[in-house]
Design a protein that fits this description.
- 2 copies of one chain form a homodimer.
- Chain A is 41% helix and 22% strand.
- By secondary structure, chain A is of the alpha/beta class.
- Chain A has 2 domains: 2-210, 3-Layer(aba) Sandwich (Aldehyde Dehydrogenase, Chain A, domain 1); 224-366, Aldehyde Dehydrogenase, Chain A, domain 2, CATH 3.40.309.
- Chain A has a 7-stranded parallel β-sheet, sandwiched between helices.
- The model of chain A has no long low-confidence stretch (mean pLDDT 95).
- The interface between A and B is large, with 80 and 80 residues.
- Strand 16 of chain A pairs parallel with strand 13 (357-362) of chain B, so a sheet runs across the interface.
Chain lengths: 432, 432
Amino acid sequence: MEITKAAQNTRESSFKLAALDSETKNRALRAIAHSLRQNASLILKANQEDIARSKREKLAAPLLKRLKFDEIKIEAVCKGIETLITLTEPVGKTLSALELDKDLELFKVSCPIGVIGVIFESRPDALVQIATLCLKSGNAVLLKGGSEAQKTNRVLSNLIHKASTSCGVPEHWIKALETREDVKQMLALDGYIDLIIPRGSNNFVKYIMDNTTIPVLGHADGICHIYVDEHADLKMAVDIIIDSKCQYVAVCNALETLLVHRARAKELLPVLKQALDKKQVELRGCTETQKIIPVKPAVEKDWKTEYLELILSIKIVDSIDQAIRHINNYGSHHTDAIVTNSKEQAAKFLNLVDSADVFWNCSTRFSDGYRYGLGAEVGISTNKIHARGPVGIEGLLIYKWKLLGKGHLAAHYSGKQARSFTHKKITKECDV
Amino acid sequence: MEITKAAQNTRESSFKLAALDSETKNRALRAIAHSLRQNASLILKANQEDIARSKREKLAAPLLKRLKFDEIKIEAVCKGIETLITLTEPVGKTLSALELDKDLELFKVSCPIGVIGVIFESRPDALVQIATLCLKSGNAVLLKGGSEAQKTNRVLSNLIHKASTSCGVPEHWIKALETREDVKQMLALDGYIDLIIPRGSNNFVKYIMDNTTIPVLGHADGICHIYVDEHADLKMAVDIIIDSKCQYVAVCNALETLLVHRARAKELLPVLKQALDKKQVELRGCTETQKIIPVKPAVEKDWKTEYLELILSIKIVDSIDQAIRHINNYGSHHTDAIVTNSKEQAAKFLNLVDSADVFWNCSTRFSDGYRYGLGAEVGISTNKIHARGPVGIEGLLIYKWKLLGKGHLAAHYSGKQARSFTHKKITKECDV
């Protein structure tokens, strides 16, 4: 009940926030950064309490690490806010303009989605990042953090609310939910929340995707592949494989399965094994692979596993078609790469592999909002609608249609004496 | 089980269809139109059997009417297919291009969504329209029609499959599901279906939206409003209200609730009543309205009702803010219009009303894909993500990111000697 009431208030606030001018939003962002820096000691104190309690409650070490929010992280999120301020205003852009008839003009204009529900584990910096991205794009936000970060999150959301509303941002635009009730309550609020963004482990994201009818922006698994084609430069292949697997092993765009064309396997695999042995990468191979290099056998489950560890599964394929089929069936439609010198083979791979990011002769590790130059990253999506791959602020936007007439009636465009539509493109910006 | 197998085949087919060239798709569309015309008698026979059976089963008259698929309708859908052929190829368009570094180029390229699930009542012409739209946009399609149109749908989908595959479109790209099993089975196939498009009554659409985690494109209610502002031209207001309410009463963009500023109510309502009486429109009014003209009292339920009949509810408001609040709370976020001579008031309304289509001084009846010049209409969406308002073929498209390198590694862009990204816009088309 408390959550529903909070969601109602946030929704009510979202209507006003959608029409808020650029200056007010940027002023509020500046005030938020200022407030976070000013109140660093308050934040650190709350965070230390969260950490102490979580230690007593035996929270796993990686989660404890992500829970930590120190001065370096405060400075990092403030820098992020300052970058946001410099971005051009995303709301109110005329995306297309069409004259339907004399004095009847149709404009497609960018606008916020409305209310974003953010559900995240541990990391309090995620709260600040997503809240300020929402503000910049005119979206209200309901946040549900993990109970381990409760005190930190409460301080952060209060500071953000106070600093922003003091600059004229409507009350209740941001609300951190705190009740002990399950996240389930939030997932049922389809009347108030327009989009859910989950941040956390793949099981956590999968749970959310499976338990709500609200659209979810994100990805669960990142089972990324590299296919070494018959026409590959093998030196390049080894370098790309090592970078994709080892450069940062616990991330969604790291390599998990290698597919090798039969014609090049005998040449590639021994060299590759030598290089990967140096990096302590455990190899698991199909029957054919096992005939060439000493590896653990890969079982069916391996092809479906996101290791996020120094483990690589290897399969030898007869053709590019078999490689593509394997990726489409076992992959997570995240990021997949081909190494080949043949443009024709590359084109085939890029067009037939059904993934958000399809790469030719480069590391899978490039699929990332910062590397893509998106400015700010909302997340990485394996959805097939709205936004795919690394998603910048445009993932928090939609559009509305504004039609400006002078008393135009539909009846005039039907029947025997029907007027015709002109449907003429115009280059005007919408000014209402 | 049968449905799951069919969905697997369709998904498999979708990967190939996504990469199909423009000529093949257009040739297939031409073959489909030819086949429908050639086999008109077969279609009519199946349709007559459906109608006869449905009559025996006492199907409601409006549904019976929509079930009818005669030569005029065959010709109409064939004309629609011919228009589709003339549309430029929607797949493979370079939407943006960015140099990340020398010889490392990122392209955002349009592509099909994958597998579209279409669930519809009665109208067999919807099957042809949506199937051919899917083909043009490279999407595979699973169709589940109402049992009343089973024979017609079977003939149509067989003819479409046969004509298209004979031109080189991959097998199984279209499949009409027919089992007696509930539509529920299809709604659970989130591993195979990327987007559901429902066509039918609002209860039917609402049921689908509430019972699947697959994204749904469409709208349930269309509770459209007109707000007559303090600064309105009242003659224009009366004309727009009559057109919006009466021009076609049973459609989602027809007017259901009128909001009138208190300052103009005494002037407007008597004239309006006279005009609406001539059209046999039943009026239901708030307490204030009842003091000015004789009307039935409107109750809370009226503000939430899509009549789709000659009934109009009227409420007098104290301000534009109250009007906006009413629309955002009771409306269905479909189409809402303001009548005013004040540009300032118009801008306020257009920016604060959270609807797909917001109109100034024109009829609500204009919110429609044909009138918007979209070429072909997939449906009208009240979603807040992906596509909003009347949706053309672009609603069936998403994009993928293609990154073309020459052995680029992420490791080179981190650490002490890190290379910088250039992030330079380029104007090239992606040619792989």
